[in-house]
Write a structure and sequence with these properties.
272 residues, 5 helices, 2 domains, 13 strands, alpha+beta
Length: 272
Amino acid sequence: MSDPMTYGCPKNPRGRLPRWVIAAGLFVIAIGLLAVFWDWNWFRPLVAQQASAPLGRTVTLRHFDLHPGRQLVAVAEGVEIANPEGFPADSRFATIVRLAVTIDAMAWLRTRRLVIPAIVLDRPTIDAQEPADSAANWMFPALASAAGSAAADQQAAPKIGNLQINDGAAHVVVPRLRADFDIAIATIDRAGGGQVKLEAHGTYAGQPITGQALGGALLSLRAATQPYPIDLRLANGPSTVHLAGTVQNPLAFAGADLALEVSGPTWRCCSR
């Protein structure tokens, strides 16, 4: 009697993934691990160089990180912007404890236009000075030139959404005006959009000065089609000023609809 015929079990092609699928999966996992564990500080010198070029000033970073995704989040910590020549080498014009910039990667892939939904600055500080023997350190000729070129090509200009400032501060010293005062700067969320709030105290023209200002979102300064709201109150010595209303084009100070109230001896000559 012959041996019974034996047949091998047919292989189920559906039970095994194609090699290209496995390879693609491993590639995606590798990219994900690289994005998580890669030290993005390798790019810190390049980022600092790119930031320095338009400002015409040396910019340094203590730490740089990048969080990939549909919206990339670039984070720089310990940002410092140097003063121009003529200032002490160890002085700084500005520092930022933490700067986070969100970039819409999908918008870039579709349109090749840089779209920045949000910029967040944590504890930025500015030391603004105008010494008697040199130009003010808040003047940026290189940046002004770049801004003029960008204005000529609005399509190439980045589209920026929300700008948030947390615990900002500025110290302003201008000897020729006998001015030495501090400004606290922050953005606040309000119904209808964000606003910027400023509070000042110190001296101006040798007299004590205090001030409070509330305005619209900083980035809406560029929107000539939307009136920019202003509410400013100043007290300088015995004189006070209250300015409230809107300006259609703040950068050109055009289309102003403002109410001005002044009082004090400084303004008596203006009321005669």
